[in-house]
Amino acid sequence: MFNNIPTVTRNLLLINVIAYLATLVIPGLSSLGGLHFFLAGDFHLYQFVTYMFLHAGFTHILFNMFALWMFGRVIESVWGPQRFLFYYLSCGIGAGLMQEAAQLIQFYTVVNGIDASVGMFDLFSMPETVSMQLNGWTTVGASGAVYAILLAFGMTFPEERIFIFPLPVPIKAKWFVTFYVLIELFYTLSSPGDGVAHTAHLGGMLFGFLMIRNWRRQAGSYGGNDRSGGSSMFDSIRRMFGRDRSYGSGHNSNMHVERGGSRESDWEYNARKKANQEEVDRILDKIRKSGYDSLTKEEKKQLFDSSNND
Question: Which residues is 259 bridged to in the sheet?
Fold first, then answer.
């Protein structure tokens, strides 16, 4: 089952789990790799990347990795590994930047409440003792990048129905994403000190939204159910899932392929590959016409298997 997960999603899951296990046996790893407030003494630029691979506890990593597995494998299969990885890391960094901005506002509010004469720019010349005290503001977790993946799924497959606890019936992905945005906005405004980086969650989704909109402007469309430019998107998906179409023309007629313990002739191999590609094309046409949620369980499995096979 694990081998059927696309490459980048699988590796991200592994790195996160390994990093979490490492924090259990290496004291101070979370402090070293976590994202500190940029005015704190322990802040380093590399933390904008390392923080998204560290987690505060088992429940934290469990929910993040479940969401990454559930939605990341779908988005990677549609976008391809390079674009997916770029999106994931960029949105994670963007989430960190938004969290830094929120902490700056929070810090200014606290300091200005104590001394109204202190201006925003005065914060950058705080004494070293204050800088060391700010080391306690540390952010960890892949939530910002994961929330961006949720947004990408909602924008790519807005009509796909998914379950969300505790609702007893499935809801469309676009309403699922809207629900999470509203929840994060509510907690950002009502519970700023609850220890959860709600601003980072929203920041990841904001950066994801801007990136997807920009890609859609460049390519005509990048959404799974966007009818205005869907053909260009599905042409690119076909290229991603496609294999060499010159069946037989570029192969050695004496070459045979081992498959399932039996020998397969080159002609049989080419015929099977051609039939598989035609089936993938049919599935992609079905998505374009009726949406991803119209696929059967077998068709979804065929799509994922085709993205992983050589």
Answer: 262
Q: What pairs with residue 35 in β-bridges?
A: 139
Taking CA atoms, 147 is separated from 29, 184, 304, in Å, by 24, 10, 22
- Residue 109 Cα to chain centre, angstroms: 33
Query: 308: which 2 tokens?
Result: 């992983």
CB atoms within 10 A of CB 215: 17
43-77 per-position pLDDT tens digit: 999 999 999 999 999 999 999 999 999 899 999 98
- Calpha distance 293→256 (Å, rounded): 39
CA distances (Å), origin 178, targets 44, 198, 209, 295:
34, 15, 12, 24
CB 94 within 8 A of CB 207: yes
**135 pLDDT more than 50:** yes
Q: What is the pTM of this model?
A: 0.69
Contact between 160 and 172 under an 8 Å Cβ cutoff? The reply is yes
Mean pLDDT, to the nearest integer, of 188-203? 75
User: Please, are residues 4 and 305 in contact by the beta-carbon 8 Å criterion?
Assistant: yes
The answer to whether the beta carbons of residues 276 and 306 sit under 8 Å apart is: yes
Burial letters 263-294, b for 16+ CB under 10 A, else e: eeebeebbeebeebbeebeebbeebbeeebbe
Per-residue pLDDT, averaged over 229-248, amounts to: 44
Tokens in use for 21? 């296990």
Q: What are the structure tokens assigned to 208, written together? A: 């994801």
Query: Is residue 86 pLDDT above 90, yes or no?
Result: yes
Measured CA to CA, the distance from residue 213 to residue 269 in angstroms comes to 41
pLDDT confidence of residue 32: 94
User: Nearest Cα to 93, choosing from 54, 48, 50, 55?
Assistant: 48
Residue found under tokens 């088992």: 58
